[in-house]
From TrEMBL:
Its cofactor is [4Fe-4S] cluster. Keywords: 4Fe-4S, Antiviral defense, Endoplasmic reticulum, Immunity, Innate immunity, Iron, Iron-sulfur, Lipid droplet, Membrane, Metal-binding, S-adenosyl-L-methionine. Residues 71-291 form the Radical SAM core domain. Belongs to the radical SAM superfamily. RSAD2 family. Interferon-inducible antiviral protein which plays a major role in the cell antiviral state induced by type I and type II interferon. Catalyzes the conversion of cytidine triphosphate (CTP) to 3'-deoxy-3',4'-didehydro-CTP (ddhCTP) via a SAM-dependent radical mechanism. In turn, ddhCTP acts as a chain terminator for the RNA-dependent RNA polymerases from multiple viruses and directly inhibits viral replication. Therefore, inhibits a wide range of DNA and RNA viruses. The gene is RSAD2. This is S-adenosylmethionine-dependent nucleotide dehydratase RSAD2. Residues 50-73 are annotated as: Disordered. It holds the Pfam family Radical_SAM. The lineage of its organism: Eukaryota, Metazoa, Chordata, Craniata, Vertebrata. It catalyses: CTP + AH2 + S-adenosyl-L-methionine = 3'-deoxy-3',4'-didehydro-CTP + 5'-deoxyadenosine + L-methionine + A + H2O + H(+). Signal peptide: none annotated. InterPro entries: Aldolase_TIM, Elp3/MiaA/NifB-like_rSAM, RSAD2, RSAD2/Viperin_antiviral, rSAM, rSAM_sf. Homodimer. Interacts with IRAK1 and TRAF6. Interacts with FPPS. Interacts with HADHB. Interacts (via C-terminus) with VAPA/VAP33 (via C-terminus).
Length: 396
């Protein structure tokens, strides 16, 4: 009897012990599963996101749905507030399809929304941004973004033809970077491209603006679109002499509805160059340390573009499809339809030292350089001393 009772107790003990072990094992297994899922989530999410971006046959809007719970930060925004321009560049990919410009207070409201959503840099572009209200509208936006929103960087891209010294006096202190478009140092090529207005010389103007940027402490940048008419040009000496903080070199890009297709205002097919030709241009200028190249592939989806209604423009399908306006639906909702490729933005160096305070430029830098312009070669001095030749002038 005693033996039987002891055996029964031992059996109960053993069974209880096995239950505890089973329970412990089951709890441990659940914990391990949870840990594995948690640790592998970012990689899986990234892979899924990549698959959506690169997957064949995606439909418009598909990616936005996939990304909807991961808001994109509008760190750097390009606001094309006007489509009007005084130039007629044959490859222009933001043409004068409307004459609309937002009232100043509405534009400021949109900029505040962007700042609240994480914007650090704003770039004002067009069209020609200095055309509206003789640059006052632009100046007020620049001042608002720097003095009131305290953005790290405020920049402008302009063809430069309408900028007056008075503007620098009034607004220069609020501007970090001024980028001037220049595709050639041969005026005849500029005229062929459409960057020219009668008696005004685009290259002469560039020299004047370079000097004002130095005088009013604005970082100077040059943008060039490489196309059929300038792809063979050698710009090494001129660019080095102008000494910009950055020289952005773009490959001419076709955008349906802007410079290509039935409803476009331009037909840019005759300007297009191959990838190999673009590479050849870059190779010829590899000695220019400030050169930042942008092939079609890098350029297409790596910019957050806002149009004149403050709608993001999605270029994923080779045209500019607008979102709703941030003024109507807010930044977070509108940006889902921007088509923005944040990875490519970082890969192309979209985040760089972009405030003039951080650039630590030597504003006292005075440079004498030989600038050769095709058909004319003279010694000029950017500190204002005219040294020789018909091309020499006072840049002070
Ligand atoms: S200057 Fe710029 S906006 Fe004006 S036509 Fe030329 S590319 Fe277009």
């Amino acid at each position: 009897m005693w033996i039987l009772e002891s055996t029964a107790s031992a059996g109960r003990l053993l069974s209880a012990f096995r239950w505890s072990l089973d329970s412990l094992y089951s709890n441990l297994a659940s914990l391990l599963c949870w840990l594995r899922a948690t640790l592998s989530f970012p990689a899986a999410w990234k892979a899924q996101k990549q698959q959506v971006r690169e997957g064949p046959g995606e439909t418009p809007g598909q990616e936005e749905e996939e990304d909807s719970d991961v808001p994109t930060t509008p760190m750097s925004v390009n606001y094309h507030f006007t489509r009007q321009c005084n130039y007629r560049c044959g490859f222009c990919f933001h043409t004068a399809k409307t004459s609309f410009v937002l009232p100043l207070e509405e534009a400021k409201r949109g900029l505040l929304l962007l700042k609240e959503a994480g914007m650090e840099k704003i770039n004002f572009s067009g069209g020609e941004p200095f055309i509206h209200d003789r640059g006052r509208y632009l100046g007020e936006l620049v001042r608002f973004c720097k003095a009131e929103l305290r953005l790290q960087s405020v920049s402008i891209v302009s063809n430069g033809s309408l900028i007056r010294e008075r503007w620098f006096k009034d607004y220069g202190e609020y501007l970090d970077i001024l980028a001037i478009s220049c595709d050639s140092f041969d005026e005849q090529v500029n005229v062929l491209i459409g960057r020219g207005q009668g008696r005004k010389n685009h290259v002469d103007n560039l020299q004047k603006l370079r000097a004002w940027c130095r005088d009013y402490r604005v970082a100077f940048k040059i943008n060039s679109v490489i196309n059929r008419f300038n792809v063979q040009e050698d710009m090494n000496e001129q660019i080095k002499a102008l000494n910009p903080v950055r020289w952005k070199v773009f490959q001419c890009l076709l955008i349906e509805g802007e410079n290509s297709g039935a409803d476009a205002l331009r037909e840019a097919a005759r300007f297009v160059i191959s990838d190999e030709e673009f590479e050849g241009f870059l190779e010829r200028h590899k000695g220019v340390s400030c050169l930042v190249p942008e092939s079609n592939q890098k350029m297409k989806d790596s910019y957050l573009i806002l149009d004149e209604y403050m709608r993001f423009l999605n270029c994923r399908n080779g045209r500019k499809d607008p979102s709703k306006s941030i003024l109507d639906v807010g930044v977070r909702e509108a940006i889902k339809f921007s088509g923005f490729d944040e990875k490519m933005f970082l890969k192309r160096g979209g985040k760089y030292v972009w405030s003039k305070a951080d650039l630590k430029l030597d504003w006292g830098f005075q440079l004498c350089n030989r600038i050769q312009v095709q058909n004319r070669s003279d010694v000029i001095c950017l500190n204002g001393l005219a040294l020789s030749g018909a091309w020499s002038r006072d840049f002070g």
